[in-house]
Automatic annotation (TrEMBL):
Residues 120-304 form the Polyphosphate kinase middle domain. Residues 331-495, 502-673 form the Polyphosphate kinase C-terminal domain. This is Polyphosphate kinase. Belongs to the polyphosphate kinase 1 (PPK1) family. It comes from Corallincola luteus. ATP binds at N45, Y467, R563, H591. It catalyses: [phosphate](n) + ATP = [phosphate](n+1) + ADP. Signal peptide: none annotated.
C-alpha cells in the first residue's frame, strides 16, 4: 500500500469533524433552538478553518510555485477542500431551510423585509432611526477605494447597489453586530400567537432609503450580503528593542490587513458586483469564492434566543457537587485527605475558583503559580491572583501571548496582572505554553507543602460549562515537585529536568508515548492481554500513528474516541484491523485527553493537556499526569466505557470519513453524556451516603 494511503489529510479530516457538527443541526431529535445554534457552531468552525488551515495550505502552494517545487499535491488538496466545503455549504442551506420550518411549527418565525405588515414596517423604521442609524456609516466604492484594507475579517457586510439610468453606485455597509443584537424580536400582533424575529441584516435592507436617499439620486437600491476571511497567521518582528508584547501587538495589526483566503457572497449578487469585489479584494485563483444564502456570519446563531417554550432547547443539567471538597472546611483540607478528580461540566467549576480564592486569603499560603492559555472575560481566576498579590503572596503567572484568537485579551490580562504586582512571564519564546497547571505552596508547621491542579482544559469559567474536561487536585510530593520543575523549565528554559511521573512536552512526551505503546506490543507478543484506550481531540502525528499501526499488527486492541481530526485510518487489513475509532458530538464539546494502557493487568491511566499532534508533542509545553488513586483511575475507565457504549451520538470513523452513526442493533439507547452525568451523580451520592 502506498504511504500516502496510510493517512487522511488532516484538513479533510477536520472538515469531516465539522460535518458531524452539521449532523447535529440536521438531527430532528435535537431541540429546534439547539439546531439553530449548531448551525452557528458549524459556521464559526468553518471561519476558523479558513483563517488557519486553508490559509496554511495556500501559503504552502505559493511557496511551491515560487521555489519551483512540486505544487501538484498541495493543489490537489486545495481542490478537494474546496469541493468538500461547497458540498457542506449546500447541505447547510438545506438544513437551514428545514430549521426555519421547524421554528415556524413552534410559532417562531424568522422573517425578512418582504414579509412585514404595514404596522410592523412602521415599527421597524422607528426602531432603525432610534437604535441603529447612529451605527451605520457606508463606504462608497469608487476607483480609489481599497476594499482589502477597509473590510474587517469575518464581519458581515451588505453591498448596496444604487442604480439610475445614468450610473450605478456601490456602497459597503458594515452590519454593526457589536453595537446591536443580530436578532430583533418584533412586537406581538394583537390576537396572533406567532412570534416574529428579524435579522439585523434585513432591518438594514428594509431601511436602505433612510441611509442613502438624503444624499444620492437613484431609481432602485438593493443590497447583497458578503464576508471575507483573512489569513490568521502573522510574523513577529525580531527587533531586539521590542518586548514580546510589543511584537505581538504589531503581529495582530498584520492580521487585520492579511491576505484574504475566502470570499462568501449572496448567490443572488449580480455577477458584475461579484467580479468588482473580487478585483478590489485581490482574490486569487487559490482563494475560495463561495456562493451562499443571503445571510453570513452564521456564528451569531450560536446565541440565537429561545423565545418559545423551555423544551425548545436543552434542559440544564444541574452541576454535581463534589463530596470530597464539600465535606471539608477548606480546599486544602480536602486535598490533604485524598486526591480529587473533577469532570466538568458535570461537576461545578467553582471548586477551581474557590481553591484560588482561598489561596489568596489563606495566611499559610506563600506562593502561587499558574499557567494561562485562555481566560473568561470576567475572570474570577485573575481576581484571586490579584487579591493574592495584594495580600503579599508571591504570585507568578505564565501568560501565553500566542494563544490563537486570544492574543489581544491575553496582552490585556498580562498588563492588568503586572500592574497589580503579579510577576508575569511569557515562557519559552519558541514554544507555546498549553499546559493547565496551578501550584500553591503553603507553610504547614515547619515545612512547605505544595498543592497542584493538573487539568485537560483552560482556567475558563465560561467554557467549563460547555467543554468536558478533567481536573486533578493533588498534594502528592513527587508529582507536585515535578509541577514545580515544569514551571522552572518554562521560566528558565536552559534548565533540564528528568520527569518520572509527569509526561512533559517537548521534553519526553514522544519517548514516553512510544514506550507505553511498545510495552503493549511486548505484552501481545508474549500472549498477554494488551490494549490501548484513547480519548483525544486530534491525532495527526505520523510517528505515533505508525506506532499504533505496529501495535495493531502485533495484536494489540486499540480503541480511540477522537472528537476532531484523525489522520489514522482504522480497519486496514494486516495494519490497523485491530483499531476502532469513534467520534462523539453532542450538547457538550468533548475536550479531555486521556490514555489508558493495559499494562499487564495494572492499567496505566494518564490525563493530559496534549493532543497527539506533532505540534503538541514537539513544539509546545504540555503536561500529562498519571492517575494513581485506584478509585479515580476506575472512574476514568468507567467514563470511557460509557462513551464507547454510546448508541445515540457516536459516529464511526472509517477510511471513507462517512460519519455513519454507530449501529445500535438490539442494544438499548445510550446517550453517553447523559449517562456520564447520571454516573457521576450516583458516585457523589454514594460518597455522601457512605
Amino acid at each position: 500500500m502506498s504511504i500516502d494511503h496510510l493517512y487522511v489529510e488532516k484538513e479533510l479530516s477536520w472538515l469531516s469533524f465539522n460535518e458531524r457538527v452539521l449532523q447535529e443541526a440536521a438531527d430532528k431529535s435535537v431541540p429546534i433552538v439547539e439546531r439553530v445554534r449548531f448551525l452557528g457552531i458549524f459556521s464559526n468552525n468553518l471561519d476558523e478553518f479558513f483563517r488557519v488551515r486553508v490559509a496554511d495550505v495556500k501559503r504552502r502552494l505559493l511557496i511551491s510555485k515560487v521555489s519551483k517545487g512540486d505544487a501538484n499535491p498541495t493543489q490537489h488538496l486545495l481542490t478537494k477542500i474546496q469541493t468538500k466545503v461547497l458540498k457542506l455549504q449546500e447541505d447547510f442551506d438545506l438544513i437551514y431551510t428545514d430549521v426555519i420550518k421547524g421554528l415556524a411549527r413552534h410559532n417562531i418565525f424568522l422573517i425578512n423585509e418582504d414579509q412585514l405588515s404595514e404596522q410592523q414596517g412602521l415599527w421597524l423604521k422607528q426602531y432603525f432611526r432610534d437604535k441603529l442609524l447612529r451605527y451605520i456609516a457606508p463606504i462608497i466604492v469608487d476607483r480609489r477605494t481599497d476594499l482589502a484594507k477597509i473590510l474587517k475579517d469575518d464581519l458581515t457586510y451588505l453591498i448596496a447597489e444604487m442604480r439610475s439610468p445614468e450610473q450605478v453606485k456601490y456602497a459597503v455597509i458594515e452590519i454593526p453586530t457589536d453595537d446591536a443584537p443580530r436578532f430583533v424580536q418584533m412586537p406581538r400582533e394583537k390576537g396572533k400567537k406567532r412570534k416574529n424575529v428579524i435579522l439585523l441584516d434585513n432591518i438594514i435592507r428594509y431601511c436602505l432609503d433612510q441611509i442613502f436617499a438624503p444624499f444620492f439620486q437613484y431609481e432602485t437600491c438593493h443590497a447583497y450580503s458578503m464576508k471575507m476571511t483573512r489569513d490568521a497567521e502573522y510574523g513577529l518582528s525580531d527587533d531586539i528593542d521590542q518586548s514580546l508584547m510589543e511584537q505581538m501587538s504589531e503581529g495582530l495589526k498584520q492580521r487585520l490587513t492579511a491576505e484574504p483566503v475566502r470570499f462568501v457572497h449572496d448567490r443572488e449578487m449580480p455577477e458584475s458586483m461579484v467580479e468588482l469585489i473580487k478585483f478590489k479584494l485581490g482574490i486569487s485563483n487559490f482563494d475560495s469564492v463561495i456562493p451562499g444564502g443571503r445571510y453570513h456570519n452564521f456564528r451569531d446563531f450560536i446565541g440565537f434566543p429561545n423565545i418559545g417554550r423551555s423544551y425548545l432547547e436543552h434542559q440544564k443539567l444541574p452541576a454535581v457537587n463534589s463530596h470530597d471538597f464539600d465535606s471539608h472546611i477548606t480546599a486544602f483540607d480536602a486535598i490533604k485527605a485524598k486526591d480529587i478528580l473533577l469532570y466538568y461540566p458535570y461537576h461545578k467549576f467553582r471548586y477551581v475558583t474557590e481553591f484560588l480564592r482561598q489561596a489568596a486569603i489563606d495566611p499559610a499560603v506563600r506562593d502561587i503559580k499558574l499557567s494561562v492559555y485562555r481566560l473568561a472575560k470576567r475572570s474570577r481566576i485573575v481576581k484571586s491572583l490579584i487579591d493574592a498579590a495584594e495580600n503579599g503572596k508571591k504570585v507568578t503567572v505564565i501568560v501565553e501571548l500566542k494563544a490563537r484568537f486570544d492574543e489581544e485579551a491575553n496582552i490585556e490580562w498580562a498588563k492588568a496582572l503586572t500592574e497589580a504586582g503579579v510577576k508575569v512571564d511569557f515562557g519559552v519564546p519558541s514554544l507555546k505554553c498549553h499546559s493547565k497547571l496551578c501550584l500553591v505552596t503553603r507553610k504547614e508547621g515547619d515545612e512547605l507543602v505544595r498543592y497542584a491542579h493538573i487539568g485537560t482544559g483552560n482556567f475558563h469559567e465560561k467554557t467549563a460549562k460547555i467543554y468536558t474536561d478533567f481536573s486533578l487536585f493533588t498534594r502528592n510530593r513527587e508529582i507536585t515537585e515535578e509541577v514545580k520543575n515544569v514551571f522552572e523549565f518554562i521560566i528558565h528554559s536552559y534548565k533540564r529536568f528528568n520527569f518520572k511521573h509527569l509526561v512533559v512536552s517537548p521534553t519526553d512526551s514522544r519517548s514516553r508515548i512510544y514506550r507505553a505503546i511498545d510495552r503493549e506490543i511486548s505484552s501481545a507478543s508474549r500472549g498477554l492481554k494488551a490494549s490501548i484506550f484513547l480519548k483525544i481531540n486530534n491525532v495527526d502525528d505520523k510517528g505515533i500513528i505508525d506506532r499504533l499501526y505496529k501495535a495493531s499488527s502485533a495484536g494489540v486492541k486499540v480503541r480511540m474516541i477522537v472528537r476532531g481530526m484523525c489522520a489514522l485510518i482504522p480497519g486496514i487489513p494486516n495494519l490497523s484491523e485491530n483499531i476502532e475509532v469513534i467520534s462523539i458530538v453532542d450538547r457538550f464539546l468533548e475536550h479531555p485527553r486521556v490514555a489508558v494502557f493495559e499494562n499487564e493487568g495494572e492499567p496505566a491511566v494518564w490525563i493530559s493537556s496534549a493532543d497527539w499532534m506533532t505540534r503538541n508533542i514537539d513544539r509546545r509545553v504540555e503536561v500529562g499526569c498519571p492517575i494513581y488513586d485506584p478509585a479515580l483511575k476506575q472512574q476514568i475507565i468507567d467514563i470511557l466505557n460509557i462513551q464507547w457504549s454510546d448508541t445515540t451520538k457516536a459516529r464511526i470513523i472509517d477510511k471513507e470519513q462517512s460519519n455513519q452513526y454507530k449501529p445500535r442493533g438490539n442494544r438499548r439507547k445510550i446517550r453517553s453524556q447523559i449517562a456520564t452525568y447520571e454516573y457521576l451523580k450516583a458516585v457523589e451520592q454514594n460518597k455522601a451516603g457512605a
